[in-house]
Protein backbone atom coordinates (compact mmCIF):
# COMPACT_ATOMS: atom_id res chain seq x y z
CA UNK A 1 0.00 0.00 0.00
CA UNK A 2 2.81 2.39 0.87
CA UNK A 3 4.53 1.73 -2.47
CA UNK A 4 1.72 3.37 -4.48
CA UNK A 5 1.74 6.43 -2.20
CA UNK A 6 5.53 6.73 -2.42
CA UNK A 7 5.38 6.51 -6.21
CA UNK A 8 2.71 9.23 -6.37
CA UNK A 9 4.82 11.52 -4.17
CA UNK A 10 7.93 10.82 -6.22
CA UNK A 11 6.09 11.75 -9.43
CA UNK A 12 4.59 14.86 -7.75
CA UNK A 13 1.09 13.52 -8.23
CA UNK A 14 0.08 13.53 -4.57
CA UNK A 15 -1.81 16.15 -2.55
CA UNK A 16 -1.37 16.56 1.21
CA UNK A 17 -4.52 17.49 3.17
CA UNK A 18 -3.35 18.67 6.61
CA UNK A 19 -5.56 19.17 9.67
CA UNK A 20 -5.30 20.44 13.23
CA UNK A 21 -3.22 17.44 14.32
CA UNK A 22 -0.26 18.85 12.37
CA UNK A 23 -0.33 22.06 14.43
CA UNK A 24 -1.08 20.21 17.67
CA UNK A 25 2.36 18.60 17.46
CA UNK A 26 3.66 22.08 18.34
CA UNK A 27 1.61 22.25 21.54
CA UNK A 28 -1.09 24.58 20.25
CA UNK A 29 -4.29 24.98 22.30
CA UNK A 30 -6.97 22.34 21.71
CA UNK A 31 -10.54 23.02 20.62
CA UNK A 32 -11.61 22.46 24.24
CA UNK A 33 -9.39 25.42 25.21
CA UNK A 34 -11.14 27.50 22.55
CA UNK A 35 -14.54 26.52 23.99
CA UNK A 36 -13.39 27.49 27.50
CA UNK A 37 -12.17 30.88 26.26
CA UNK A 38 -15.44 31.64 24.42
CA UNK A 39 -17.48 30.56 27.46
CA UNK A 40 -15.42 32.82 29.72
CA UNK A 41 -15.72 35.81 27.39
CA UNK A 42 -19.50 35.36 27.12
CA UNK A 43 -19.96 34.56 30.83
CA UNK A 44 -21.31 31.08 30.10
CA UNK A 45 -21.20 28.38 32.77
CA UNK A 46 -20.13 25.24 30.92
CA UNK A 47 -21.19 23.08 33.87
CA UNK A 48 -24.79 23.82 32.93
CA UNK A 49 -24.35 21.87 29.70
CA UNK A 50 -24.15 18.10 29.57
CA UNK A 51 -21.21 16.58 27.70
CA UNK A 52 -22.00 16.53 24.01
CA UNK A 53 -24.69 19.26 24.27
CA UNK A 54 -22.34 22.01 23.08
CA UNK A 55 -19.81 21.90 20.26
CA UNK A 56 -17.40 24.60 19.16
CA UNK A 57 -19.27 25.26 15.88
CA UNK A 58 -22.50 26.18 17.66
CA UNK A 59 -20.63 28.11 20.33
CA UNK A 60 -18.73 30.12 17.70
CA UNK A 61 -22.06 30.87 15.99
CA UNK A 62 -23.46 32.08 19.33
CA UNK A 63 -20.31 34.21 19.82
CA UNK A 64 -20.76 35.87 16.42
CA UNK A 65 -24.42 36.67 17.19
CA UNK A 66 -23.64 38.12 20.63
CA UNK A 67 -20.46 40.01 19.68
CA UNK A 68 -21.55 41.13 16.23
CA UNK A 69 -18.51 39.60 14.52
CA UNK A 70 -15.96 36.83 14.85
CA UNK A 71 -13.13 39.43 14.81
CA UNK A 72 -12.21 39.44 18.53
CA UNK A 73 -12.19 35.64 18.63
CA UNK A 74 -10.05 35.54 15.50
CA UNK A 75 -7.59 37.95 17.14
CA UNK A 76 -7.36 35.75 20.27
CA UNK A 77 -6.82 32.64 18.14
CA UNK A 78 -4.19 34.41 16.05
CA UNK A 79 -2.20 35.32 19.19
CA UNK A 80 -2.50 31.85 20.73
CA UNK A 81 -2.06 29.77 17.56
CA UNK A 82 1.13 31.52 16.42
CA UNK A 83 4.33 29.61 17.17
CA UNK A 84 7.75 31.19 17.69
CA UNK A 85 10.04 30.67 14.72
CA UNK A 86 12.74 28.77 16.62
CA UNK A 87 10.18 26.25 17.87
CA UNK A 88 8.67 25.93 14.42
CA UNK A 89 12.06 25.37 12.79
CA UNK A 90 12.70 22.57 15.31
CA UNK A 91 9.43 20.84 14.38
CA UNK A 92 10.29 17.57 12.63
CA UNK A 93 6.73 17.21 11.31
CA UNK A 94 6.90 20.57 9.52
CA UNK A 95 10.41 19.89 8.27
CA UNK A 96 9.32 16.55 6.83
CA UNK A 97 6.32 18.11 5.10
CA UNK A 98 8.65 20.64 3.46
CA UNK A 99 11.08 17.91 2.37
CA UNK A 100 8.34 15.68 0.92
CA UNK A 101 7.69 18.51 -1.56
CA UNK A 102 3.99 18.02 -2.26
CA UNK A 103 2.96 20.21 -5.22
CA UNK A 104 -0.29 21.11 -3.43
CA UNK A 105 -1.08 21.21 0.29
CA UNK A 106 -4.64 21.80 1.44
CA UNK A 107 -5.04 22.74 5.09
CA UNK A 108 -8.07 23.49 7.26
CA UNK A 109 -5.81 25.27 9.77
CA UNK A 110 -6.20 29.05 10.05
CA UNK A 111 -2.68 29.59 11.44
CA UNK A 112 0.38 30.55 9.38
CA UNK A 113 2.60 27.78 10.72
CA UNK A 114 2.87 25.88 7.44
CA UNK A 115 3.73 29.04 5.51
CA UNK A 116 6.28 30.09 8.13
CA UNK A 117 7.85 26.62 8.06
CA UNK A 118 8.24 26.91 4.27
CA UNK A 119 9.89 30.33 4.75
CA UNK A 120 12.25 28.99 7.43
CA UNK A 121 13.28 26.06 5.23
CA UNK A 122 13.82 28.30 2.20
CA UNK A 123 10.96 26.92 0.12
CA UNK A 124 8.90 29.08 -2.21
CA UNK A 125 5.09 28.72 -2.24
CA UNK A 126 1.87 30.40 -3.29
CA UNK A 127 -0.79 30.86 -0.59
CA UNK A 128 -4.36 30.47 -1.83
CA UNK A 129 -7.25 31.76 0.27
CA UNK A 130 -9.78 32.85 -2.38
CA UNK A 131 -10.55 32.81 -6.10
CA UNK A 132 -8.25 35.79 -6.75
CA UNK A 133 -5.27 33.86 -5.39
CA UNK A 134 -5.83 30.97 -7.81
CA UNK A 135 -4.68 33.26 -10.63
CA UNK A 136 -1.31 33.61 -8.83
CA UNK A 137 -0.42 29.90 -9.21
CA UNK A 138 3.01 29.40 -10.79
CA UNK A 139 4.25 26.27 -12.50
CA UNK A 140 6.50 24.19 -10.25
CA UNK A 141 5.81 26.29 -7.14
CA UNK A 142 3.99 24.49 -4.27
CA UNK A 143 0.53 25.74 -3.38
CA UNK A 144 -0.71 26.07 0.21
CA UNK A 145 -4.48 26.22 -0.02
CA UNK A 146 -6.16 27.56 3.15
CA UNK A 147 -9.35 25.56 2.72
CA UNK A 148 -11.10 26.93 5.82
CA UNK A 149 -9.63 30.40 5.64
CA UNK A 150 -6.73 32.41 6.96
CA UNK A 151 -6.15 34.70 9.95
CA UNK A 152 -5.31 37.52 7.53
CA UNK A 153 -8.92 37.60 6.29
CA UNK A 154 -11.81 37.37 8.78
CA UNK A 155 -14.36 36.81 6.01
CA UNK A 156 -12.54 33.70 4.79
CA UNK A 157 -12.61 31.84 8.12
CA UNK A 158 -14.88 28.81 8.40
CA UNK A 159 -15.38 28.43 12.14
CA UNK A 160 -19.07 28.85 13.04
CA UNK A 161 -21.97 26.53 12.32
CA UNK A 162 -23.38 28.65 9.48
CA UNK A 163 -19.94 28.71 7.81
CA UNK A 164 -19.77 24.92 7.86
CA UNK A 165 -23.34 24.46 6.63
CA UNK A 166 -22.72 26.83 3.73
CA UNK A 167 -19.56 24.91 2.80
CA UNK A 168 -21.56 21.69 2.63
CA UNK A 169 -22.85 22.89 -0.75
CA UNK A 170 -19.31 22.10 -1.96
CA UNK A 171 -19.57 24.89 -4.55
CA UNK A 172 -17.18 27.62 -3.37
CA UNK A 173 -14.18 28.46 -5.61
CA UNK A 174 -11.86 26.45 -3.34
CA UNK A 175 -14.25 23.48 -3.44
CA UNK A 176 -14.28 23.57 -7.23
CA UNK A 177 -10.48 23.80 -7.26
CA UNK A 178 -10.23 20.85 -4.87
CA UNK A 179 -12.50 18.69 -7.01
CA UNK A 180 -10.38 19.47 -10.07
CA UNK A 181 -7.11 18.81 -8.22
CA UNK A 182 -8.33 15.66 -6.48
CA UNK A 183 -9.78 13.90 -9.51
CA UNK A 184 -6.35 13.34 -11.02
CA UNK A 185 -4.13 12.97 -7.96
CA UNK A 186 -3.53 10.80 -4.92
CA UNK A 187 -4.62 12.43 -1.64
CA UNK A 188 -3.06 11.89 1.78
CA UNK A 189 -5.10 13.13 4.77
CA UNK A 190 -3.08 13.69 7.97
CA UNK A 191 -3.83 15.39 11.27
CA UNK A 192 -7.59 14.80 11.29
CA UNK A 193 -9.98 13.41 13.81
CA UNK A 194 -12.42 11.25 11.90
CA UNK A 195 -15.23 12.86 13.93
CA UNK A 196 -14.75 16.02 11.80
CA UNK A 197 -18.04 15.99 9.89
CA UNK A 198 -16.87 18.50 7.28
CA UNK A 199 -13.88 16.35 6.30
CA UNK A 200 -15.96 13.17 6.36
CA UNK A 201 -18.45 14.83 4.04
CA UNK A 202 -15.63 15.91 1.73
CA UNK A 203 -14.28 12.34 1.61
CA UNK A 204 -17.76 10.99 0.93
CA UNK A 205 -18.41 13.51 -1.86
CA UNK A 206 -15.12 12.60 -3.50
CA UNK A 207 -16.10 8.92 -3.42
CA UNK A 208 -19.57 9.67 -4.82
CA UNK A 209 -18.07 11.76 -7.64
CA UNK A 210 -15.95 8.83 -8.79
CA UNK A 211 -18.73 6.28 -8.20
CA UNK A 212 -21.09 8.29 -10.39
CA UNK A 213 -18.53 8.82 -13.16
CA UNK A 214 -18.48 5.22 -14.34
CA UNK A 215 -14.67 5.22 -14.04
CA UNK A 216 -14.23 4.35 -10.36
CA UNK A 217 -11.59 1.75 -11.22
CA UNK A 218 -9.38 4.53 -12.58
CA UNK A 219 -9.54 6.61 -9.40
CA UNK A 220 -6.08 7.38 -7.94
CA UNK A 221 -5.59 5.86 -4.50
CA UNK A 222 -6.26 8.06 -1.48
CA UNK A 223 -5.03 7.58 2.08
CA UNK A 224 -5.88 8.60 5.63
CA UNK A 225 -3.23 8.47 8.35
CA UNK A 226 -4.69 7.74 11.79
CA UNK A 227 -2.79 8.05 15.07
CA UNK A 228 -4.40 4.91 16.48
CA UNK A 229 -5.81 1.80 14.78
CA UNK A 230 -9.61 1.91 14.67
CA UNK A 231 -11.28 -1.04 12.90
CA UNK A 232 -14.70 0.66 12.86
CA UNK A 233 -13.41 3.79 11.12
CA UNK A 234 -11.19 1.73 8.84
CA UNK A 235 -14.13 -0.31 7.57
CA UNK A 236 -16.23 2.79 6.83
CA UNK A 237 -13.39 4.73 5.18
CA UNK A 238 -12.34 1.78 3.04
CA UNK A 239 -15.93 1.58 1.80
CA UNK A 240 -15.34 5.09 0.44
CA UNK A 241 -12.14 3.99 -1.31
CA UNK A 242 -9.72 5.37 1.28
CA UNK A 243 -6.77 3.32 2.53
CA UNK A 244 -6.12 3.70 6.26
CA UNK A 245 -2.49 3.90 7.42
CA UNK A 246 -1.25 3.74 11.03
CA UNK A 247 1.95 3.28 13.03
CA UNK A 248 0.72 0.48 15.28
CA UNK A 249 3.67 0.21 17.66
CA UNK A 250 4.24 3.93 18.07
CA UNK A 251 2.92 6.33 20.77
CA UNK A 252 0.18 8.55 19.22
CA UNK A 253 2.11 11.74 20.02
CA UNK A 254 5.00 10.56 17.81
CA UNK A 255 3.07 8.61 15.20
CA UNK A 256 2.76 11.35 12.57
CA UNK A 257 6.46 12.22 12.72
CA UNK A 258 7.47 8.55 12.44
CA UNK A 259 5.11 8.00 9.52
CA UNK A 260 6.29 11.07 7.57
CA UNK A 261 9.94 10.14 8.18
CA UNK A 262 9.27 6.66 6.81
CA UNK A 263 7.49 8.17 3.80
CA UNK A 264 10.42 10.50 3.05
CA UNK A 265 12.94 7.66 3.39
CA UNK A 266 11.00 5.42 1.00
CA UNK A 267 10.46 8.27 -1.48
CA UNK A 268 14.17 9.06 -1.62
CA UNK A 269 15.00 5.38 -1.98
CA UNK A 270 12.58 5.16 -4.94
CA UNK A 271 14.13 8.29 -6.50
CA UNK A 272 17.62 6.82 -6.21
CA UNK A 273 16.49 3.56 -7.79
CA UNK A 274 14.89 5.36 -10.73
CA UNK A 275 18.10 7.34 -11.36
CA UNK A 276 20.19 4.20 -11.85
From TrEMBL:
Q: Which Gene3D superfamilies match?
A: TPP-binding domain
InterPro entries in UniProt: DHS-like_NAD/FAD-binding_dom, Uncharacterised_Sir2-like
> At the top level of its lineage, which domain of life is listed?
Bacteria
Fetch the Pfam families from UniProt: SIR2_2 (PF13289)
Q: What is the protein named? A: SIR2-like domain-containing protein
Q: Which organism is it from?
A: Microvirga guangxiensis
Lineage from the top down?
Bacteria, Pseudomonadati, Pseudomonadota, Alphaproteobacteria, Hyphomicrobiales
Amino acid sequence: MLEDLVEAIRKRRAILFAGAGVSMTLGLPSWSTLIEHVAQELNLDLSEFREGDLNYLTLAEFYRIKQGSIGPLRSWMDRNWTIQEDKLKASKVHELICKLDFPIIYTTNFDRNLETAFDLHGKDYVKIVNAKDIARVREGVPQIVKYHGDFDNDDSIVIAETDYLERLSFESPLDIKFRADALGKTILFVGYSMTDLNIRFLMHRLWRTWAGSGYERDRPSSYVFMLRPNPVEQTVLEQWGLHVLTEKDCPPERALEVFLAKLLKETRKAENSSDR
